[in-house]
Write a structure and sequence with these properties.
295 residues; alpha+beta; Endonuclease, Chain A; two-stranded antiparallel sheet; 11 helices
């Protein structure tokens, strides 16, 4: 494969012809390359323009990851395939015509149509949190299993590192003892009979989460793991990162009757690109937090 700088010089003009820098940042995030706006600007100054205004240091590893991400974005959005032998893009024969808007991103919102994100994708989403992570679900069963049924290196170690940095984590689940919860699951069970069993498991899940909270907080890190229950009717699953900051972000999944929660499409909303939408969901979440009870 050609060196990273050559790849970037090849890819950048293609990308910037269609995407402005803000949209390109979102496109890079879609392929799991989270890069700061200033860093992308520095890559442009150093690699493309070759005349930075000041000394800028870009590591070989950064440029290597950027080159890979640039290739992925192009291959996902154009009928092109990268040829490492020649450092060129080859047009794919018999490829579908490019749609006018080939992205699943609109107005700063990315839609993941295949549903719940993988463990590694969630770690990637929260890893740069500075102050707070908020997880709001119904049972938080999958979340609890990240701690009880996975290797520590897959999830728990990452949470411990965030707590060590002073990041607080709030987790909210429906109150197993609430009549609202029982009615919700009985209604769900009309279309998905297994939901009745899911409801019966909730007290044990809450106990598991209490134990996870106790174990993490005993470590004595600056960040705290907090657990709450709520009685509001559930409309969405939220995973929010630094919601009060300008770079806050949200993974949001709306619950759909008759569809298992893992299959509900997920929206990725960033505050600095979809501020009105982000703040609308944040306002709703604040109301849930206001009424939630600490466990």
């Amino acid at each position: 494969m050609s060196d990273s700088k050559a790849i970037i010089r090849l890819c950048y003009p293609i990308l910037i012809e269609r995407f402005n820098h803000k949209t390109l940042l979102i496109k890079l995030q879609e392929v799991q390359f989270d890069i700061a706006p200033a860093t992308l600007t520095n890559i442009k100054k150093v690699i493309i323009e070759g005349n930075p205004e000041r000394k800028i240091s870009l590591s070989k590893e950064l440029l290597k990851e950027a080159a890979k991400a640039f290739i992925l974005v192009i291959e996902l959005n154009w009928p092109l395939k990268y040829d490492p032998a020649t450092n060129e893009f080859i047009k794919l024969e018999n490829a579908d015509p490019e749609p006018e808007n080939p992205s699943n991103q609109a107005h700063g919102i990315i839609i993941h149509q295949d549903g719940r994100r993988s463990t590694s994708e969630k770690i990637q989403f929260i890893k740069n949190a500075k102050k707070e992570i908020i997880e709001v679900g119904i049972r938080l069963h999958t979340f609890s299993q990240y701690f009880t049924s996975r290797r520590k290196s897959e999830f728990r170690d990452h949470i411990e590192q965030l707590l060590k940095k002073g990041v607080n984590m709030k987790c909210l689940m429906m109150d197993p003892a609430s009549e609202m919860t029982r009615l919700y699951f009985m209604d769900r069970a009309k279309a998905l009979p297994k939901e009745a069993k899911a409801y019966e498991q909730m007290p044990q899940i809450l106990e598991d989460l209490k134990k996870i909270k106790e174990d993490l907080n005993q470590l004595g890190h600056p960040g705290q793991f907090e657990l709450f229950t709520y009685e509001n009717f559930p409309y969405n699953h939220y995973m929010m990162v630094d919601p009060e900051e300008d770079n806050g972000k949200l993974l949001l999944s709306s619950y759909i009757h008759g569809i298992i929660r893992a299959d509900c499409p997920v929206m990725e909303i960033r505050k600095n690109t979809a501020r009105v939408t982000f703040n609308t969901y944040l306002e709703s979440l604040r109301m849930i937090l206001k009424e939630a009870k600490a466990v």
